[in-house]
């Protein structure tokens, strides 16, 4: 099958920098059996192409991205016709994919895994805030033969907007990120928390820091590793200093998967404080190496609630601290949550994701 995948980015030629690991896993799994051509809207400033895990990546570049992406899709279709166009996200990638699919007479799939159906004006996030994208996204989704979503909470948002969707989680490739059984914690050692997320307002690290302060004020010996690109120019680090917990927080910045792995394996609890998530993939990575997650009621964590994760409403620092303390005080509970999360992440890994999308490709092409 000849597949066009249109996305914003996350498919850098280095396979380490500026990548979204779950996308690398998906592309590689599909390319093992199909002709996969990836169209990245803005992976690099200038147009170029490279081979990535058996797929050919066509980078569109920064200027006139939608127009040039449609032209690139049409040129590749003339060379070897596509059976399906698959847009990940709406935005410019979804718009380019929808226009090209309509012009070429090829079925379109759209996958929602971001802020397409969200409006969080207090942090400047979500496409529903802008009339232009509300109109364009409705047109894009109306072009799609099938709309898929990463998790059930996103499916619920889509249903409220009038869209029927299918849930297809973006799983982790266990070849890249091998599973490890949960490891018992030494109760006498310092408890280690980890949060893997870009430092931005949607991830709401302020709630994590507030929870850490509560934990340390209560007498718990606990430290926090923060991993992620800082887009807030040191604001989170300054907040840690203001809260008097700077010595208990280690800022690592962006790390490759290879550098991240040892930090994850040393952690006892993974923390998510996001106001919105479709996944997050970091919770799946934590689960695969036996680290349970305490987080906000978003994405997969909402699906896993009480059985495979402990969750609280967004911005509930006291609740977050309470659940972290529960896991640190109750080792059988911590290990039980970790095993349940690992089982779910293994059931829905990258191979599962690729198989689900393959079945949908067959479905839409058979419809004609």
Number of β-strand runs: 14
Measured by DSSP, the beta-strand proportion falls in: 15-25%
By DSSP (H or I, 4+ residues per run), the number of helices equals: 13
Give the radius of gyration. Answer: 21 Å
- Tally of individual domains: 2
Distance between the ends: 14 Å
Folded structure, characterized:
With 368 residues, the chain is an alpha/beta fold. The chain folds into two domains: 2-173 and 349-367, Glycogen Phosphorylase B (Rossmann fold), CATH 3.40.50; 191-347, Glycogen Phosphorylase B (Rossmann fold, 3-Layer(aba) Sandwich). The protein is built from 13 helices and 14 strands. An eight-stranded mixed beta sheet has the order 3-4-2-1-5-6-7-8, sandwiched between helices. The protein has a six-stranded parallel beta sheet with strand order 11-10-9-12-13-14, sandwiched between helices. Strand 13 (293-296), helix 10 and strand 14 (310-312) form a beta-alpha-beta unit. Helix 1 (21-31) crosses helix 13 (350-367), helix 3 runs parallel beside helix 4 and helix 9 crosses helix 12. The two termini are 14 Å apart. The model has no long low-confidence stretch (mean pLDDT 97).
